[in-house]
Amino acid sequence: MHALLGGFYPRVHRTLQREVVSEHSLLFTWPGSDPSLGPVLLAGHMDVVPVDPASASRWIQPPFSGAIADGFIWGRGTLDNKMTVMGVLEAVEALIGQGFTPRRTMYFAFGHDEEVGGIRGAKEIAALLTSRNINLDIVVDEGLPITEGVMDGVADPLAVVGVAEKGLLTIELVASTESGHSSVPLRETAISVLAAAVHRLQDNPMPGSVDGVLHDMLAFAGPEMPFSRRMVMANLWLFGPLVEFLLAGVPGTDAFLRTTTAATIFSAGNKDNVVPSVARSVVNFRLKPGDTIEAVLDHVRAVIDDSRIEITTLDGWEASKVTDPYSPSFRMVQRTIGQAIPRTVVVPGLVLGATDARHYESLADHVYRLSPTRLGPADVDRIHGVNERIAVHSYLEVVQFYAQLIRNLNSDPQ
Ligand SMILES: [Zn+2]
User: Fold this and answer.
1) Can you tell me the distance from the alpha carbon of 408 to that of 335, in angstroms, rounded to the nearest whole number?
2) pTM
3) What CATH number is attached to the domain comprising 299?
4) 60 located within any domain
5) Residues 137 and 28 in one domain
6) Contact 289, 163 (CB under 8 A)
7) Number of C-alpha atoms within 13 angstroms, CB side, residue 223?
8) What percent of the chain has pLDDT above 70?
9) Which residue from 44, 33, 128, 30 is spatially nearest to 78, judged by alpha carbons?
């Protein structure tokens, strides 16, 4: 991959400083001419999720071919997230060719393990920048794609720029009771105690409300969009909840409204006539900005309220801070999207999953998450799915977006 990039983008490799971090991640530095301006970091990731062998035969083009056919570039990673890596480098290569030099120092950081948490990639790059006392003004990382044709009667593309992302908390619950023979069962067993506790957790989620990012999202979208019950939605895993929220009474809005609760593992017992003494469950929470891990744990302990259940934290990180969507840099991102993809309606939003951006958050004043590619209703499932592809004309817009972004970042101070 590194050799390929060197061959594709010779000017980038001649002009920028290139560092390899944790063996596989890349950090490019393009020094700016005006040290009074804060540096900017554009992030992407080079790793991809695997191709499920069970579905490999359903790929129209081999998943690692990078075939260009029927107006598309096909392959695993074309959307998530090679388009950012290649799009940024393509833009820089072109800008260098045009004689452009940045006023701000520009960093381009491409991790190699985003899909498994970015611990060796983005986190180490952030640590390297921290050790050099670098404070970033703006970070732009991958995020939600620009959706098209999602809403009936609304032709304009819609960009939801992530100004925050949710945190995560995974806990393990272990219920212990006496075991016994199933012919003389106790009134309560480890299974029933744990099932009741998980049921209570699901029935009593953290409180939700239309505030913060959700409020801003609706405030930006309201005047632009003729939202109505006539909207016909495809099964968009990342966009559906927003629209469902607008369709009052339809479940599934929780993810934007609150910290969500999802039991993901439940296990106990291994013989049909033995009542097990131990039952185990894993529950995964996605934290809304404003809810802390400690607050969720307090809530869990209060809701479970059962000394027979041991609660252990397995993993977790706090929700991100929220970038102000009324800041000049948000307007700059908004303007840039409009220049690359005209007529796009741009609103701030909450990213429900996790991105590498969270590792750069402590270094940066403004963090934005966006994948500047248009996707139709049928295309979103291709991310991490079968027949991932990007339209050639969309990829051109991606390159134009990053070139314009770099130009705008280096015109008037943001
Ligand atoms: Zn990604």
Assistant:
1) 9
2) 0.87
3) 3.30.70.360
4) yes
5) yes
6) no
7) 5
8) 89
9) 44
Separation of CA 185 and ligand 1 centre (Å): 49
The residues annotated with a catalytic role in the active site are 47, 114
CA 82 / ligand 1 centre spacing (Å): 9
Q: How many residues does the structure list for the chain?
A: 414
Note whether 284 and 359 are same-domain residues.
no
Angstrom CA distances, 88 to 9, 16, 119, 124, 402, stand at 11, 13, 22, 21, 6
Structure tokens at 186: 């106790």
pLDDT at 177 over 80: yes
Q: Hunting for tokens 């720029």 — which residue is that?
A: 161
Helices (H), 171-234: 190-203, 212-221
Tell me the average pLDDT across 360-385.
Answer: 89
Domain co-membership, 231 together with 347: no
pLDDT in tens, 302-323: 999 999 999 999 999 999 999 9
Q: Are residues 147 and 232 in the same domain?
A: no
Instruction: Give the list of residues 6+ apart from residue 394 with CB closer than 8 angstroms, or none.
Output: 373, 374
Place of tokens 């120092």: 105
What is the whole-number distance in angstroms between the Cα of residue 77 and the centre of ligand 1?
8
**Cα of 86 from ligand 1 centre, angstroms:** 14
Q: What is the arithmetic mean of pLDDT over 365-393?
A: 89
- Number of C-beta neighbours around residue 251 at 10 A: 7
Choose among 220, 208, 288, 291: nearest CA to 245.
208
Give the chain's mean pLDDT: 89
Question: What six digits make up the tokens of 75?
Answer: 């392959």
What is the distance in angstroms between the CA of the first residue and the CA of the last residue of the chain? 34
**Amino acid identity, residue 131?**
S
Distance CA 287, CA 355 (A): 14
Ligand 1 center from residue 356 Cα (angstroms) = 8
Question: How many Å apart are CA 113 and CA 44, to the nearest integer?
Answer: 11
Q: Residue 148 is part of a domain; what is its CATH number?
A: 3.40.630.10
Same domain, 201 and 284: yes
More reliable by pLDDT, 60 or 229: 60
- Amino acid identity of 51? V
Q: Which domain holds residue 38?
A: 2-153+322-409
